[in-house]
Amino acid sequence: MNFLENIFERLAQSAQRPVLQEVDNGRIVSATGRQLLSAIAQAQAFLRRAGIGRGDRCVLLAPNSIRWAALDLAAMAAGAIVVPLYARQSPAELVYMIKDCAPSLVCCGSVALRDSITNHGDLAPPMFLLEEIFEDQGQRSIENATPGPLSDRDPVTIIYTSGTSGEPKGVVLHVGNVNHMLGCTTGRLNALMGDRSQPERVFHYLPFCFAGSWILLLSCLSRTSVLTLSTDLTKLAKEIHLAAPDYFLNVPALLERVRGGIENQLTQRGGLALRLFRNAQDAWLSRQDGVTTLSGSLWLALARTLLFPAIRKRISSHLKALICGSAPLAKETQLFFMMMGVPVLQVYGLTETTAICTMDHPQHIEPGFVGGAIDDVEMRLGPGEEILVRGPNVFPGYWNRPQATAEVMREGWFHTGDLGEVNSRDRWRVTGRMKNLIIPSSGHNVAPEPLEESLLRALPGAQQVVLCGNGRSFLTAIVTGSVSREKVEATLETFNAPLPHYKRIRGFYLHPEPFSVENGLLTANGKLRREAIAERLQEQIEEMYRTLQS
User: pTM here?
Assistant: First the structure.
């Protein structure tokens, strides 16, 4: 039984209970297994009328919703290849990807979204709105919602990479990739949740067009779960409270903001609560270094009784764990949540590895590392400490790009482009990207990511930090956000002190406008477009170096 057959069978077994939910203006709208199967049948009928069949590409351009999931499952069941695109991406980029995959159909979430892409290029495929696809409100027979025969090598999706440098590439994933991945995620989630008589509650806010987010959707539909979808990121805290999840998937930026918000509120509150928190935190961090004292244990016990439960309840009263991926999480932040009694399970992977290479085991978390390789996946370090991966999770290739595929697939190993290290317990740490390495005139290799993340944490109010200095005699930084020049100067004085000379940041430029997807300086999943930033701010960077060297 493949993953799609399993999901359809699970939905039939869950005919009377909610499996997917949306938050709509403070209330939850649910779809039972039967209702989701009926929506799938409705979408399948539309696809048949549109002539969509095996191997056809179907672009899905819309925010997360129950209908998004129904159309995705319907298209895969028809043997079509779903191409999910990010609704916030620039119209020019969306048009490029649509033309690249040459779809037979484009499905849009709104008129505004449809018009934004049609105004930026001549697109041949027919376009339909989701409301047109699901306009027949009558209940369809769920017996009509059945997947066609699929082999392990049949492609089911093309997910475009973020394109941090150059044009995005379409990553093809097939049935076998997804089959293996859902087996791995199910094993880890079983270890987290244990034996349960009630469906597990999961909250979700990350777009399904990202591989990890999509794998979570399929994982939940493959299990006894109810997945609640956020519909308004400005109301995230309220929506999480409403969903009361057992766990949910995160990016590091959100967890950093939550941690910062809690610490700032305690600082403003002051008094006994702040003293209790700081003493308990000192004791907790000392314990991680193998130092335990009687007074520290007392402070920690008091905080666990009087303070930490209230903080946990503010996030979710039922929270058993947080899952974090897309980028390495700061060790200090992981330890912060663990101190609160909330384990943070890290995941590492790329779209080309069906989202995941490593996952933390709930009973074997090592802070600062992203876990060990998942079942049947091999990982090793190649030249230059590059992480190499081999296994059933590795993609078959990029869409219509054999040369690009050959560049990353060599001798059976996928070359991730990530720098890493592995300890004696086979736990992995990701230290940066090979293409991001800065080589100053001293000849040293400097991975910018750890320095950028550390400096960003030391600068409350800053939104981004980007290092410069390739081929130059010293490093500098671009800083965005609400932070003063005096604050950056004072922070750098302390920040640089323990660093070797070639890692010290000698100057900085304060850029008033944060980098974003909309201004073209962040990728769809929030990563820095370093080449675009360097080009856009070339004059400011040159002036900064001229001033510092004069």
Answer: 0.89
